[in-house]
Amino acid sequence: xxxxxSWQIAEIAGPKKATLIVKPEVADAMxxxxxxxxxxxxxLAAEIxxxxxxxxxxxxxxxxxxxxxxxxTGHTNRDFLKRGFTKAKIMPAVEIGQRLTDPEWKGIDGxxxxxxAIFAGLPYYMEWTILSGLKHFAPNLKTMTLDNTYQPHASxxxxxxxxxxxxxxxxxxIEKVEE
Amino acid sequence: xEILSRKSINIKIKELKSDIGNIKDLELSIxxxxxxxxxxxxxxxxxxxxxxxxxxxxxxxxxxxxxxxPFCDLCCLCTYGKCxxxxxxxxxxxxxxSAQQSRTVLLASCIGAATxxxxxxxLVTYAIKKFGTDYPLDPGGLAxxxxxxxIRLVCGVKPEKLGDLETxxxxxxxxxxxxxxxxxxxxxxxxxxxxxxVFHAGMIDQVGMEVADIAQISVFxxxxxxxxxxxxxxxxxxxxxxxxxxxxxGHNVPPAIQIIDYLKDKRLxxxxxxxxxxxxAIDATRYSSKVKxxxxxxxxxxxIRSGIPDVIVxxxxxxxxxxxxxxxxxRAPFIATSEKNCLGLPDRTRDSADDIVADLVSRKNLGVxxxxxxKVGEVAVKTARAVAPKRKKSRTxxxxxxxIEQAKTCNQCKMxxxxxxxxxxxxxxxxxxxKGNIGMIGDMYEExxxxxxxxxxCPETIPIHNIIVSAATQRTKNESFRIRxxxxxxxxxxxxxxxxxxxxGEIPGIVAFVGCSNYPKGGKEVAEMCIEFARRRYIVCxxxxxxxxxxxxxxxxxxxPYELFPGTFDAGGIVNVGSCVANSHIAGAAVKIASIxxxxxxxxxxxxxxxxxxxxxxxxxxxxxxxxxxAAAIASGFWRLGIPVVVGxxxxxxxRMLLGRADREQDxxxxxxxxxxxxxxGPVPEHLFFAAETKEEAxxxxxxxxxxxxxxxxxxxxxxTHYIDLHRRxxxxxxxxxxxxxxxxxxxxxxxxxxxxxxxxxKGWKETIIPDPTLLVNQVEKRGVR
Lengths: 179, 786
Ligand code: SF4
Ligand code: SF4
Ligand code: SF4
Known about the structure:
Largest interface: A-B, 42 and 46 residues
Distance between the termini of chain A: 30 Å
Oligomer: heterodimer
Bound molecules: iron/sulfur cluster
CATH architecture of the largest domain in chain B: 3-Layer(aba) Sandwich
Largest sheet of chain A: 7 strands, parallel
Number of strands of chain B: 23
Structural class of chain A: alpha/beta
Mean pLDDT of chain A: 96
Largest sheet of chain B: 8 strands, mixed
Number of domains of chain B: 5
Shape of chain A: globular
Strand content of chain B: 5-15%
CATH topology of the largest domain in chain B: Rossmann fold
CATH superfamily of chain A: TPP-binding domain
Mean pLDDT of chain B: 93
CATH class of chain A: Alpha Beta
Low-confidence stretches of chain B: 1-31
CATH architecture of chain A: 3-Layer(aba) Sandwich
């Protein structure tokens, strides 16, 4: 049964916890509803195997099909370049975290403040702390994580799910984001 | 702190006969200070109060806005609580989440500062008892004239004797009490004022560290600013296990020194091995190069469980609190030596050494508390010699067959991985081990920080950490490295030589690797970063656990970084200053550049000097495995001096970053001291406290954070070359913010001209001037003083 239990046992949040993405449609609805979403990809995305691909391959497909701007944190950009993707903006995770708390900041494209930040591939605890910063100090922003571990500080998160379920969910999200 | 200096005024009159005449031998001393011969003019803030530097702090905090990362939605500090602080709600006391977070940072910094200051107090008291108040302070012999730059800068006094340090400590303890009181419910309500107090805690922490280190260098005869301090052994395999082995852990070195002295006195130095973990180990090697360093604090469990130590002696700070239990498992007697760390043990300080030894050997006492370093020396040596033959190195490690048997009991519940701070893939490795392949679990040795949380969580009580270490036996057998013993301060002559190139930017920066070993991917990353920057001819400094991790690497020829690079404070050097408290010499070097090279007055002149360091000295602190509250305090001390600090990803758990906004042009103006004009200088340095996600991100950021407004074009071109080169290599592209660091076309590195000119054009870059930079209006009038 899906529960709101943190992946790292002791990382207990408090009264305000992420809503579970119980099915992929939830994630798609959020992405489609967002006026100005952004996808933030950490370095683990290039390390995590999802069958014959890496997690970053799924995220890249999602970004391209969903037309999502991409921020590459850590040294992730290198792995995007290897895949021929040159449009990622390089920005450290704590920097993008801080920018997102500024209601005046108009995003990397200078258009308007982001209303949805999708995180994936950061070290669990670092994503946890940054999402907490956003939960408390970016009241107008919704956050989502596409990792397969529950992140209580996000607005939406998967529960802790198996790699198999994760792959299925990602595939389905990618498929539907195009429709 | 006039009250303080007044308090310490001392008037002695031996004879006073009549009303006005016949006064004999009138002695007047101010504080405990030796006669004042110091002619340097006093600056505006000697012994600053907790608000004396508030305006300076605000200038920094204006540029580097706190980004808070709450660890929890709640506050539970008082009985009004728990209070829910989500969604902008205020607590029952009225506090907002931002202030609550900064209060927690202040608490951490106070704990850290208290730890160093009480360590310093203990050392000074011990030293005075042994050597007297008049014992001269001499941290650098003839090579160091500015012997206590931080004390001079902050307190405005020039300590010459041990006794002088007591007055400094009085001041620090006074400040610390006030700072701690600020964290009381309802005492302070504004986050930025909390932050200013965090900086104050960091500053007094730096003074406390300097007190501790110059006292111990002076009385114990540690290397005195010696770039050629001896190379000493480090690693699990350097220990001669045929001999009785003593293990010392902690930070406060007198008990370890007494062990070494007792061995020397009894001509037993060749008979018994003294090994150490954490800063006590570093400081013991500054006393005797025979001592062997095992490794940073994360080596505690693995070394104790190896069964090698016959006696374990702990003093204070960063010691696993369950070491007594671990010692019991390997049947090693345990000696606690600090009032701060009594561990429930019987106090045997007043008993005879032989009685204590008898009780430890017979195991009537599994551990004892001895609050007398000399007695510790005797008891530790005698006990080690008596128990070593009996213990037969009783260990807890496992054979390959035992590992496989244990692994077979794993039920794949994943509780271990979910408890592991580094999310290590224990269940998969356990599955492989159950099938006979122990390679995978052995590989985890490199990234495991030895916390044993996995073992605590395992429902099958599998000794996971033991398995990891046992499966890595081949690695531990090869663990033999060389580290340069902590050299202490930086010589004045070294500062004279590098001051110019640093301030002009031609030496691209000073990168200091400090702090604990809570690494995200093992300590090897520290060594790799050290080598990268030393090769690029930065000045690399190391201290504490990071200094040890830097040693744990060998090149193809089997050479460690300390053998590959010299210990001089110069371009391309790797300079181990010593233990945690020796960190003060790194800040001290930055400060000495201002005084020795630029001839600015230090005395009680904090703001001006911090402004100098901030705008001119391209120094960056890196605490890649920062874990402790002491590390928080050390970082805070760097911030107030305007020195940025980079931490690893676990550093986000310190609950706030101090980040600049490169995209806000208005944030990056300085005054030109020559003209008084406001000049845009670009985001240099861009951040004050930054957590990097990966080693690669850290390296690019370090290179970037070394830039300063004062860089000459030649210097800036060199710094930009390193930044761009690292960015290209590690991120795959030329940085899209490079134009922000180009002020005039001559700043552009020749080899990158084509690329950069194109970027400048695209970004609508405009040329600016290179000012004589300051954030302080009052510096503008002081034209001509460089
Ligand atoms: S200190 Fe303030 S916020 Fe914290 S528990 Fe007490 S009343 Fe609540
Ligand atoms: S001891 Fe090592 S493997 Fe176990 S939880 Fe700690 S870091 Fe992880
Ligand atoms: S906690 Fe123990 S039983 Fe569970 S997966 Fe880890 S090793 Fe296996």
